[in-house]
Each structure stands twice: as C-alpha cells, then as structure tokens.
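Batch job 17 of 40 flagged for manual review because the log was empty.
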Amino acid sequence: MPEQTFKKHYQNILDYPGFRKDGRGSAPFLPMSRKEMTALGWDFCDIILVSGDAYVDHPSFCTAIIGRYLEAFGFRVGVIAQPDWKSRDAFMILGRPRLFFGVTAGNMDSMINHYTAERRIRSDDAYTPGNVAGKRPDRATVVYTQRIKEAYKGIPVVLGGIEASLRRFAHYDYWSDTVKNSVLPDSKADILVYGNGERPIIEIAWRLSQGEDIKSLTDIRGTAVMLGELPPGFTGIDARKPEAGIPIPPRKNPYCDLCSRNDRAQTAPAQSQTSSQPASPTSSQNPSPSLSLASSPDPTAAPAQSPAVSSHSAASSENVSSSASSSAASSAASAASPAASSVHAPAPDAIPEKYVLMPSAEEVKKDRLSYAQAAHLMLLETNPYCARCLAQAHGSRYVWVNPPSFPLTTPEYDAVYELPFRRVPHPAYKGERIPAYDMIKESVSIMRGCFGGCSFCSITAHEGKIIQSRSEDSVVHEVTEVKDKTPGFKGVLSDLGGPSANMYRLGCSDPRAQASCRRPSCLYPEPCRKLNTDHSSLIELYRRIRSLPFIRRVFIASGVRIDLALRDPEYIRELVTHHVGGLLKIAPEHTEPEVLSRMLKPAISGYDEFKKLFDRYSAEAGKKQYLIPYFMSSHPGSDLKSMIRLALWLKKRGFELDQVQNYIPTPMAGAAAMYYTGMNPYERIKSGDNSEVFVAKGDIARKRQKAILRYHDPANFAVIREALRELGMEYLIGTGPDALVPPPGAGDRNSASRPRYGFEREERGRREDTGRNNARNNDRMKNLGRSAGAGFGDSRGNSRGNDRRPSGKMPHPDSRNGASGKHKNRNKDR
C-alpha cells in the first residue's frame, strides 16, 4: 500500500480511516477455514482471533463483536475457535496473519468455566457445541499464546477478554491457592487490552498497519505492556509501602508529539467549552450514526466526552495511600478550588504523566500486607478521568498498565452494535446446540458498566463504573434484527439489560465530581447525592419496545439493583406491571451488616421496602408474582453466626432456596484481596495493625456455610447441628417454630412437598394452579442477566465472585463475566 500520513489517538472511533479500499464489505461469517478464505478471495488474513468459545456471530460474544468491528475498517479478520491446544498445528490453519493474533479465553474465565466453587471439574461447557466440556485448556490465554509463539516466531500477540483483563497484575489464584504473575510475562504476549476493547484495539490495528513496531505501542489507554525500565517523562510515586508515597523525579518524555503538554494546552480551551454537561455516555440523545464505520460524522454532532481533570488537578496529585472514602471527600472539596475550575474534556491521547509504583510481584507473593496495598492502589485507579498509570515489577521488568480507555459515546456504541451480525452460530457447527447462544439469542444489551461496586464483582476493574448507554433508535434497530434473523422468534424478548437491569442512562450529574471521583461505589453505603437516579429514560425505552407490532412480551432478566430502583418507584411499577414473568430474581446476597459492609451492599431493610412495592404493584396489575432472593455463603466477613442468622431470616419468611452460591474469589475483585490477605483493601492499608476480616477457608468451613444456607435440606441437618453445638446455640435444634433444624432421630422431612423456589409458605397452594403456566417464564428468569459483548476486553460472564449457575448447569455468558455477570455468573454450585 502507498505510504500515507496518519495521526494517532483519534478521539472518535468512527474517525479512523478505512484500511483497505477493496475490502469494505462484510463476509457472510468471519472465515474459520482456508476454504472460506478462498471463497472471499483472500490469500491471507490481516488479523486472526483465537477464542476459547465457539464462534457465534452475535454481539453478545466478544470474538464476533471485535471481529466485525475490525472488519468494518477493511481489515481481513479470521477466527480460530476452540483450537486443539496440544499442538501448534491447529493455530496454523489460516496461515500467518499480516498484523497480529488476538487471543481471548472467551466470554468466561477458563478456570470458572472448568471448576466449581469446590474446585471440582465441571462436566459441561455452555459455550461449546453440544455442551461438551474439555474443549479449552486451563488458563487458556497463556496456553494459546504459547502455541502461537511456537507456530510463528516474532508474530505480535494481543491479549483480551475477561481472563486477561482481570489478570493484568500479579493476582491471587483461588484454584491453586497461590499468587501468580501477571498474564503478560507468563504468556509472552506483546500487549494486553483490558476492559471494553473498541478504542484500544482499533488503535493497535491501525498503527501496526502503518508499520509501527508492536514494541512502540506503549501509550494506548486500556492496555498493559512489559517495559524494561520505567518510562521517562513521567513523575512517579513510590507506593510500594503503605506509608506516604515517595516522589520519583521524571525524565524526558519519549512519547508521540500528541502526548506533549503543549498540544494538550492548545486543545484544552476548545474542549473545555463542551464540559458543562454531565457525562456524555449517559446523557446523549443524538441519533445513531450510519452502520458503516468508514464514514466520519461531524465531530460536533457527537456528544463530548465526560470531563477529566487537568494535569494539575488535586485528584492527580492526591496521595495514593489515601482511602477511597477520604478520596471522595477530597473530591468534593476540590470542586470549589481553582484547580477544579480548570476541568476540561481530555485530549484524545491524554495519558497522565504520572504513575504509581506498586509492590512488585515478588513482594505480593511473599507478603500479604504488600498484596493488600497493591489491591488498594488498583481500586483507586479505575476512573479513566483521573486514573494514573500503574507499574508493577516482575523480576527485572515492569508490567506497565495505562489508565482505562474512555467510555464510548452513544453514537460510537450504537455503531458497534449495528454491525452486520448474522446472530447465529457459524454454519461449521451444523446446527449443533450451543446453550450459551440459546440463552441470549432473543435478548438485547442496552448498556455497559456498573456503578454498584460490589466487592465480590470485578466489573469495576474490568469495565468501570461509568455507564455507557445506547440510543433508543439503536435498541429498536437491534430488536428488529432479532425478529428478522433469530430462528423461531415468536415475539418474546428474554431481556433488555446489561450488567444491571436499571442503570440505563444513569450516572453522575456533576462532571467535575465525576472527573476526580475515586469512590468504589456510587450506591454504598448510600446512593451518592450527585447520582442521577431518574429511570424515566429506561421506562420510555421499555414502552417503545413494547409498542412494536411484532413484540408480544418483554421480560427483564438482568439483575435489578433494588436500592437504586427504590429511588424511583415508578420504575418498579413499570417493571412489575409489564416485565415480570411470575418470578423476579434479586440479589440481597446476605442479611447481616458485618457481611454486607464487606460486600459493599445495602442493608437488608431495602429488600423489605422493595417487596412491599412489588406486592402492591403486582396486586394492582391483577397478577400473582413472587420475589426470588439470592444469597451467598463463605464471603469474607461471613462466619458461622452470620450464616445462622441468615438461615433464621430465611426460615422466618418461609424461603427454602434451591439455587445458592458459594463465593469464589475472582482476580482483581476487592473481596478476593480480603479472602487472601484477611485485610480490607477499601480501607487505608497501614504497616501496623489493619482491621481483620474473617474468612472461611478450606473445604470443610466453606461446605458448612453452604449447608447452613440450605437449612431445609435433610442432608445438611447433621452439619448444622454440629455448628449450632459449637456456637452454644443448641436451642435452635428442635421441632418448634423457632428451631432451625430438627433433633437427631426426628425423621427426615419430605422435601418434595416443600416450595422449591423460595415462595413464602402461605403461597404454596397456588403452585399447582399456576406452575405450568409459569414454567417457561421461570426458565427465563433463571438466566438472571444477559450476555452483552463488550469488545475484545469483553464479557461480564464471570466477573462476579460466585459459582451460581442457572438450572440445567449452563453458565450464563453475561458478565457477564460476566463477567462477570451485574453481569453475572449466577451459577448453581455442583
């Protein structure tokens, strides 16, 4: 191709030029074989994506969304799905790509895909044709990369997906009970994309296509790379110890001209004029752009990015050892300061010239205090508008993690989801059933991100807490696509949602506060006073979708954040009246304050408030509908007494749960740091005494907590009696109404006659009358959440730290991760 001048760091992803003028059309499916390449007239691929999932050409699957996205710019993209990792030959079937291999473990972390909370091997894999297990290796990201490097010496490899995203630092690995290195040095990959991947992946592809060396791509937001030395031009803070950070003097900045302070100073005045509105991803009402990403719409037509503080702001210079809560307080104070008044939208490349030096991989492996300090630092640096670079030594080299990429604007988000997806699995599978696809084929993702900040969930570390929302027109367009392209569609949508059901177009109402906020949650301990909680946009979207002539019903299966819904009772009325299929699943997770405070979840009183409104609006609609609460055992902070009190709460209300979850520590989640260290990373870590967090470790302790959660199961009676005797609570053993379990020899109760799904006892009689009619809707609700591909750094499929699968033992693709997967992996423990 003839040489051409190009710039880096386009602010709008729609502005990147087309790579190949003769390759703008879309393939029927991204090719998986040489035969398909020949039919397309290709001699080679520019990019090959390797995935641990089957290839389903649907926007809920990360391989499809990134492949179609890159294809829209003229790149030739091939797919190698679930290759045989025992040999390099399977990675050579499409030849050597011209630019790079992209590697992802898939929509789920491979370890959660393979193992239960008790570390037992699963017998199925919903992302594989035929639901067959064993089609991907453990730690697939590392294994795939090693095979690719064996096959093609010197080929660039770009990592992405939930597995790589949450392993970008040294991390605790629950399955081996050890701290492992970042996935980058272990895999020998060249660059890692974390979080939503659209911005970084097109920057990588475009710059490699223009002849840049992969080793020079160290200045891209949302990426991590390995460096031989800390880069010059950056002011560092040595935060390896919990004491006050020690400044590290900068050297000259070698990065591109666009990264210079002078250029940013020149662009700041014009951009600052657009920063008076709240964050654009949640506030834009602009129509969707053309489906072709080749066109570059008028930059003034797109909403401005959410503002970020200037390089001289208080947030950028605040001490990294401060706690998340004190950081939030300082953010409010800085809003009135002269520094805060210089808030402006960032330059497209704006990587702050500041970094934080974290405890090294070697330190966090041998010292739990250092691990807790590293986790504390990671939790502080998740806001793209004030996050600094993070550096962690691994031997003589450094893992260098750039700040998160900026959220997509609504027009950008729309354009990605309006790409020409076929919405069915690749024909190579010959119609064989892929359970994960069956779950989401009739659902639509309307948003990304979650500002709930639950400690057991990795969404904040993966996607961030800033909500990105699609336009109504774009959602309607996809619903029409569902009708036209989904085999057997009968007018029923299984979900309109995302990581949470009810955060569409919500977010911070104060741009300056958002620009410097380091709070891990906008909802805990109480919703932030600056949080917009008006659900009217979501209500209008629901009504518009219901009004479509080909739509019969619309269900909401993503998890409802009840503390947020309580701020807008009209939303609860709309949801209960039109979008509940008999059962609504919600996740209070626990009842006891000492546990909820570690989860960053609201008090259980919110459940009672929500239930009153739910029952009231159900009665007004003339419907019999029921809440199904989810609870978690073995979470940090939960001891036997906490679980006994939770079981008594359940018994008092007549709940007897079939689906329960035993906590799994997932990398980069705050609760995982609690589990490993016994310290709370949401508090300031000190060299002396730190508050201790109780952790149930070991198979026996964890199984006991899970048994208590299912207090009604005769198989658990002996275990619960033993726990009650240990606690001196024998008075709960008996046959009276206040007893938790019967005495030995009292005889097993007939559990077959008891309510299976947690309905309250006075409602048992209605099961025979309505059970058959509600069966289909109950199955839908079991999915609780939906898959929404979030790009190369996707999936909320297993981002929540649990092991709760829907009935039928099918992992939910959304995290979703995932996810996460709240985009959740609500999995039934086996």
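Reviewer: the log was empty due to a logging misconfiguration, but the result itself is present. The radius of gyration is 26 Å. Unflagging and moving on to job 18.
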